[in-house]
Amino acid sequence: MPKIKAEKKSRIHNEVAKQGIHFNKDFGQHILKNPLIITSMLDKAGLRPTDIALEIGPGTGNMTIKMLDRVKKVIACEIDTRLVAELQKRVQGTPYQAKLQILVGDVLKTELPFFDICVANIPYQISSPLVFKLLLHRPFFRCAVLMFQQEFAQRLVAKPGDKLYCRLSINTQLLARVDMLMKVGKNNFRPPPKVESSVVRIEPRNPPPPINFVEWDGLTRIAFVRKNKTLSAAFKHNTTMAVLEKNYRVHCSLHNKEIPDEFDIKQKVQDVLTAAEADQMRARTMDVDDFMKLLHAFNSEGIHFA
Known about the structure:
The protein is of the alpha/beta class. Helices cover 40% and strands 16% of the residues.
């Protein structure tokens, strides 16, 4: 039998192993070990010496150290106190120590400070809420270069008509320009994840579109529940109609509008869809402009989604 080569381990991972630290898959801890990919992500981010950079889930600091070489300051958000201690020890007594700020805790529950740019290998289970936390963050950042599970990344960049086009796609593309940068094989991580990964670049639209995002999200949620059905069919569910009728009555009350005794919310919604020529449209083929026109048509008739 051929001799099986022992797996090579980096010095940093050997140090972590000696301390008895095992990577926690519950936190999505798959440490990016390939220095070429780290360098490529930093190059594509266009880092500047004056930048304040945000890193989420720095792990053992492989990317953090390289980033500290290029920017004014790195803010690293890490939930695992064992890895926080490892990162602190790695910069202790070096010029990097004064340039590194560590936020300990869950990034989704942390109030993020100002930053110019975000570069990170994201814990995959928080991908969706984190994307929208970043996109709704103010003041605006310049761009984010982020590593995601490959299918999630494909959903972010999917266009109308694509198989993976979904509510995530259109909600993200409303708020940002998203570009696929590169694919990353699972063997570039320790421990290797079960899925392939991809890196995307997210650039927030500044200024943002003049739309109430909560309302927008409510509309796309209804439309994409059954993205292959017509909008006329998607809006017929009783629970949806009950929410829209409640919102409509609140709107009329606030604007001193009388509601006729024979008022039928289903007919009202159908009338709006027909007038907007959207009743036979399907969410899977609608773009941002289509949904913006539809949201305006509903709001103009007092129908709100938040």
